Amino acid sequence: MNQHEFSIPETETATKDESASVAGAVSSGWKPDFNLGSEPRWQLAQRIVASRSFAKSALLSRFLLYVCEREITGRITEISEHQIGVHVFGRRPGYHPGEDNIVRNYARQLRVRLDQYFQEEGRNEELRLTIPRGKYVPDYSVKRFQDRPLLVVAEPPAESPVLETPAPLAAELMERRPWGLVAFGVVLIFICLVTAWAFMHRASAATRDASNSLWTQIFKKDRQTLVVPSDDGIVMIQNLTGHLVPLSEYINRDYLSLKSPYHIDEQNMRDLDAQRYTNVTDLNAVMRFSHLPDVDTSRLVVRYARELRMEDLKNTNVILLGSSFSNPWAELFEKNLNFQFSYQPHPNASLIVNRTPQPGEQPVYENEATGPSHRTYAVIGFVPNLNNTGWVLLAEGLTMAGTQAAVDTLFDPEVMQPLLRQFSNKDHSVNPFEVLIETRSFGSDSPQAGVVATRVYRNHN
Description:
seven-stranded mixed sheet, alpha/beta
């Protein structure tokens, strides 16, 4: 398992659904209704869609031009999720945005691409354009003082040592010109240096405490990171039908034809498939990831497992919560791990196989969550994505309590710091690794956890 350098993909690969959206949008024939050639806001929109960030994404360009044209011509009431779905993405007039979130997904991408444009190619633009969160109406602002740097005076952080110059001393120094001015300036510089040192020292300590070498690798500033909670609906379907659903059946929805011995009819099965079930453990994990200091929340995207696409796992950083039984996408990476999950389609009938036991390790770790010991297991895995252009972080347990233990361990600096030092290179980059965790399960809670075994895969090229 080799580690490779990765870069931002220049092209945008369309999935089957997205390709259909492009075709539908083109066939809808929407064009701006007015000649807006001389309008500065329209000219800005034209420069943006011609940039590198937008040129290879027809749908994002069309999205931006549509909302800009409607805003400029005063038809703001037509800038709604439903209208955008119809006019930009070719959806039928009767479609329900609550059941099809393509507009929201592309709106997130649009905001990211706009930020990228004004940071790079459009950094000298005097007129700025944003799409506020929760809205689709463009917002414009003028970049002022473009050629004059602004002096920003920030208050010193709490508990930082600040030296104060007594008022009589300051007055005396001011009276002794010109040396008084020089001395007063030296004092001010000294105060600023001490304050800056204290701030940097505290920030450095906080960074070390956060064990952020892993976080900075999975949460890159120049790309999105997808967090994918488990699909508890597929867990219920497997338990009700007695059939394990592999990734191929999950993608194609073949499991909808399964018959249940519990007499679950076709309509109820489809209803179970249509609902987006996950669990509080995974939702809490998403919140914890979003509050990390290394995370740019505009680039953190929560994606339901059934809406994930293979392309997402090729060119994006991804966090998968849950094992292949509850998040079938984990199957793509579990097959290459040393600690492999094995399931029977019954609650708690599961184990982890240790493919290459080391001294002191067991060949099999069985789930005993419902037994007297309440023992269960989990794995943290950090591996390259499918194209070796980014990273996938796995937090998976044999039970919900196991997944919670994996997440708790990730956020425990006393456990992770020593491990990351073992897993890292001299440049602090983290190599692919696995961590096997033992915990106790009481319901969905994990009161304690400990590291049982580890594996690291170093790049020897």
